[in-house]
Amino acid sequence: MKSMFTAACVLLATLLGSAVALADEDATATGSHAVAYVKDSAITTKVKTRLATEHLTSVTRIHVDTDKEGVVWLSGTAKTQAAIREAVAIARQTEGVKKVHNSITISND
Questions:
Q1: Which domain does 75 fall in, by range?
Q2: Which of the four pLDDT bands, split at 50, 70 and 90, describes residue 34?
Q3: What digits encode the pLDDT tens for the residues 87-99?
Q4: What pLDDT is attached to residue 10?
Q5: 14 to each of 9, 29, 85, 103, 108, how far by Cα in Å?
Q6: What is the torsional sign of CA 6, 10, 15, 17?
Q7: Three-class SS of the chain
Q8: How much is the pLDDT for 12?
């Protein structure tokens, strides 16, 4: 069951990352903006995939965004401080990530 969930998360993250990368129609004539945009969504997808494969119980509540400099922004909620630390560590260890900003809070649910 867990492997099926992980596979579904990986597939969804890959599809969403590709869709976001293709959605930018305002790229400059040189294409530099489009290249940076693809890189951002690729890093976001990598982080989301790694979070899913680590089986964090609160992965569905953690949101990941990446800016053009490779800085990852984590937000949302997690069940424990340990889950927050693990999510931040996973993001920091992901290829292409330059820095991680953490805004994840502990949920009372």
A1: 2-106
A2: low
A3: 999 999 999 999 9
A4: 56
A5: 8, 27, 24, 24, 31
A6: positive
A7: CHHHHHHHHHHHHHHHHHHHHHCCCCCCCCCHHHHHHHHHHHHHHHHHHHHHHCCCCCHHHEEEEECCCCEEEEEEEECCHHHHHHHHHHHHCCCCCCEEEEEEEECCC
A8: 55
User: What is the total count of domains within the chain?
Assistant: 1
Closest to 102 measured CA to CA, from 78, 79, 94: 78
* Structure tokens that stand for 25 in this block: 């129609």
Residue with tokens 């400099």: 69
Q: Is the dihedral of CA 32, 92, 75, 41 positive or negative?
A: positive
C-alpha dist (Å) from residue 48 to 41, 60, 79, 82:
10, 10, 17, 18
Q: Name residue 43's amino acid.
A: I
Amino acid type, 56: L
